Known about the structure:
Elements: H1 7-19, H2 22-29, H3 33-47, E1 52-55, E2 58-61, H4 63-92, E3 94-98, H5 101-118, E4 123-127, H6 134-137, E5 142-146, E6 154-168, E7 189-192, H7 198-206, E8 216-219, H8 222-230, E9 235-239, H9 244-248, E10 253-254, E11 261-271, H10 278-296
Parallel strand pairs: 3-4, 3-5, 7-8, 7-9
Antiparallel strand pairs: 1-2, 5-11, 6-9, 6-10, 6-11
Amino acid sequence: MSRLPSLRALRAFQVAGTHLNLADAAEELFITPSGVSHQIRQLEEELGTKLFNRTGRGLELTERGAELLPTLTAIFDTLAAAVSDFKTHRAASAVTISMPASFASRWFIPNLGKFEAAHPDIDLRLLCQDTNDARTRKELDCIIRFGQADWPGFREHLLFSEQLVVVCNPRLLRGASRLTPEDVTGFRLLKVESQPNEWERWARCTGVPIGKKTRTLTFETRELALQGAFEGLGLALAGVGEITDDLRHGRLTVALDSKPMASGPYFLLVSDLRSGSPAVKALSAWLQAEFSDAAQR
Length: 297
């Protein structure tokens, strides 16, 4: 195959031939008029023929230039269409999803490999942000959130109902397999700012008394509270589903054999505008299947 001329030079000729004006061609190509002229001269030298006649009013195609222009225009149109189709396909196979940071780090990311193995062509954009702002929700395809939200433009799917247990770093047990209910008040309780009465509800649910003098440490998020538990700062309440890996690897342990406390539901919200997307359908189906299987185990 013979060596092709520079693609940049071919494009400069095609645009200049369409406009028949160097200044207009330069504006479309984001270069200077002299740059366009240089590219055209380079192409003419390489092809061994003149493509334009310069006139006082601008440019005029020669016979050979008029012969080449339609073919190049069709080629560049085909190339532009191919790139546009590729971008559209990539956008259609991408999903933007938002969820609480603790859910992302302790369940979604550890399990994400299974989804990617089944759907290697789907790109995910994972956000952990405040979705109570309607303006923020506009860019989201899916949302995982704790508690129900009757938001226009989204349809809800129940994923699971959270069950909370007491966890701590295994070192705090000092060799014991579990704490007794009476032991709880001897430890600092790690609280979550958005759930200030959670430990009191747990005490009423389990019948384990918590004295008013029990020490507490409050964190902004549950993720931070669980990190505090891992560091041995005290006892934390954690959702059974989000600490599976921590329990398996011994980073945390269930501190006492009390009945799990029902905390509330987690929902998957899917944007009506994107509910028909194959990528969104695939992610939604995978999430619902994962939690359905977990409930049956």
